[in-house]
Request: fold
Amino acid sequence: MKFRCPYCKHIIGEEPVAICPKCQKGIKIPEHFKDSVDKIKKENEKSNAKHIPKGTFLFSSGIFSLHSPALPIAIITLLALAVVYSKFSKSSYKYSPIKFNDPKAILEKAANDSLEMAKKELWVLRMAIEMFKRDCGRYPTSGEGITALINNPGELTWKGPYVTFTRPDPWKNNYQYSFTNNKMLVFSCGPDQTPDTTDDILAQEPTDKDRADYDIPLPLLSTNGTSFTP
Reply:
């Protein structure tokens, strides 16, 4: 049985409504129809309940209710993701560069980090010293040391400061500098904190690219095979 609006004759459907959805006019529902509608609703609910398998619990009427066909797919997808995550986590832990329960590995990494930091800071100092020589025509004396990179030792062509400040090496000692017999050295005493030992870390010679980037003259070879900078 279908209901029709008494004004615009619009077919409403199997259940009566108080307002016509088309003409928006109010519709008075007779009392005997109300009883019939309630009876039809109860019969429909009873009929639908017969189609639900015994032991099924409906947590929602959406896509993830227990009787929904999409639920098995969702469960399989979640299980697959869990397996992939588990394998990935184990793999990541296995090949991690540091095992946090290995004190030796932690100490080795800390030592390597300190070594790399010292090399980088020595490179900065060496380049600053080369720029000092480019402008002043000489290296700082052993007495002037690295301080000549920050404070003008009295050179008219000094264009520093070439570094804004100096700090100790990773082992809390000052970087060392010497210029003796036309040989310049800038180095760290290393982990043993003692100069002239096997673990001293020397500043590397600037590469041709470094010299080009900072407009530093290339060293020339003398007749005896040693190098000097004009």
